[in-house]
Amino acid sequence: MAAGREKLRQAGISEPEAALDARLLAQWLLGWDAARFVASATEEPGATFQPDYDQFIERRANREPMAYIYAGQEFYGRMFEVTPAVLIPRPETEIIVEAALSVLPNLARARVADIGTGSGCLAITIACERPLARILATDLSHEALEIALRNARRHEVDARVSLAAGDLLPPRVAGDPAFDLIVSNPPYVPEGDRPSLAPEVRDYEPAGALFAGPDGLNVIRRLIPVSAERLAPGGYLIFEIGIDQDAAVTQLISTTPDLRMVGLRNDLQGIPRTAVVQRA
Question: For the chain, which domains are there?
Fold first, then answer.
């Protein structure tokens, strides 16, 4: 394991992260939790361990994210399948869930849309937490929708989470009810920030889920008016934004008829990351 840790360090991964990743990869291959790993430090692993371990260390040394090596990432206390076809769920995106649950009563028969669902982590988590809600989850990527479907089945909410391919929301058909809630983690990274991103993000995560024009607002500029048209009166739009985008997003909301900014929720660093908007 020491050799693996050193290889990760030489690949540009910080010493603490290299040590953690080397240990976690070993634990994962062995199927051991941390307690057993410590207790069994002198135990010889099986014959296939070392070649498998070396292969995973090589992948991590190439800066492949741990979540893609594991093919999974925890989100809001649940495990989700992830591949390079979808964005890796992040802790700050859980703020969307918290805001959504705060506006959806526990037994509300709410109609919810998740735009750009990716792994389905938002749609599925809301479905798990609100057992009477019905969710439409959309994405441009058919690969992403396949992963979202597997995740919905894994968490046994596929009967209440419908998946649709396309940009933003499908055209409204006569008789379709309006949405009580629309959530989204849209692409919002400015294209000019691409070179400064960590290799794990820039080289592995899907560009279409990250970048949105020169200022990062290309998708958000379309998301806001579409949501205004499809929300029920009193319904909410809750979506993630990038660093220093709060003023621009607030301005966009203020110039969109029928919408008002209810508030901005900060991440753990105190950065505004989630916009909460209500239709009048």
Answer: 2-62 (no CATH), 87-279 (3.40.50.150)
